[in-house]
TrEMBL record:
Naturally occurring in which organism (per UniProt): Mariniflexile fucanivorans
One Gene Ontology term of the molecular function aspect: 6-phosphofructokinase activity
Binding annotation for substrate: T130, I131, D132, R167, M174, G175, R176, E227, R252, H258, M259, Q260, R261
Upper lineage: Bacteria, Pseudomonadati, Bacteroidota, Flavobacteriia, Flavobacteriales
Main localization of the protein described in the UniProt heading: cytoplasm
Transmembrane segment boundaries: none
Name of encoding gene: pfkA
Protein's name according to its UniProt entry: ATP-dependent 6-phosphofructokinase
Cleaved signal peptide residues: none
Amino acid sequence: MSKTIKKIAVLTSGGDSPGMNAAIRAVVRTCAYHNIECVGIYRGYEGLMEGDFKQMNARSVRGIINKGGTILKSARSKEFRTKEGRLQAHKMLVEENVDALVAIGGDGTFTGAMIFSQEFDFPVMGIPGTIDNDIVGTSHTLGFDTALNTVVDAIDKIRDTASSHNRLFFIEVMGRDVGHIALNVGIAGGAEEILIPEEDLGLDRLVESLNKSRKSGKSSSIVVVAEGDKIGKNIFELKDYVDENMEGYDVRVSVLGHMQRGGPPSCFDRVLASRMGVKAVESLMEGKTSYMVGLINGKMELTPLEKAIKGKTKINLELLRVSDIMST
Ligand code: F6P
């Protein structure tokens, strides 16, 4: 029989994402609801190894549901990848009498959590927090929806200036290995082309397509490029290529960067974070370990961490088709 959980620790690790604070709040408040002690760990696995803990209660998380970033701070830890680092982390948790850990982050965070759990038979639960939406076992990661809204807002603004000057804009959005942000904002922002890592359009076809839309009467164009796209070496080289091989457009580049990771979480992300926090704590109470909580067909479900880490998310082919038709 699994040990009764009396104390839970929570940390955020890897790149931050809007909704992480709402998830911390949900974990802390669910613990308080069930009379479980809760400690926050600062700076992810770095703080875990250093014992940078803070006792938290329902009031410690007031006023944060609407805040971007993470009050617990985040870090990417090299040391936690070593056995010595994890031994040190385990020592700190044992000294603090912590029975289980909730780790909020992406695949790097989950890889660390899974290895740690296996090595020390320590209960862990993952909450997926990354704007990239690149985790298997949930239709939405925390922060994805907010990032989409932030980017669409930026594209709308860029379109205003693009159409005033008859310009072609390449807009780079985040997505290290995947094109989920690019594909969605491309459709919502009315982009003429969307370049994503999952699909290789090819430079010649890109120029051909832009020429076609220019001839059809478009005076300005937006091309959304996922940062992980493989078509051009980088977005500036892509611009140079189009500049050299296409006439009639003044071409500009806009790299949106880290503004995509900030800002107040959307209503969707706040609700999702709250549901995930409740599910994570209550699953640990039921003796479950090494799972990630996620949204599948509208319901909170558990997916083994191993599957969440090893799986590759698929691009929505229907959205690809919609984007093709819309750019006619
Ligand atoms: O993983 C989320 C993400 O936003 C990626 O899309 C991006 O490549 C990366 O973080 C950038 O992270 P950082 O600049 O914090 O290393």
